[in-house]
Amino acid sequence: MSDTTAAAGLAPLVRALAKRSRAQPILENARSTPWSSITFTGARHRFSLRFESDRAARHAHAMCDGLNYAEFELGAHLLVDIAILDNRVSATGCTLTVEALTIAND
After folding, report:
1. How confident is the model over 74-86, as pLDDT tens digits?
2. What total number of domains does the chain contain?
3. Which of 4, 12, 14, 39 fits a 20 to 30 Å CA distance from 47?
């Protein structure tokens, strides 16, 4: 699997997370690494989403609330695992660091 193919699951995942947050976060530090098992191929994604507004914390909370049980429509990919690794709040907003595993939906 090429790096381009591995990154293909990232864009629909970020769109789905933005929809949950009811905002348009800024994508930062995105990295996708190919991943595979005997039966599945996919990618592990690590990225940050920055929310900038006086409601940044509210948008971040909306995105994270129930995240482990949420279902996502990612087209040709399935979300297998997702975790919030870091949550930084500043005077200008909130930045979440996310790690996720997506697999091809063949």
Report:
1. 999 999 999 999 9
2. 1
3. 39
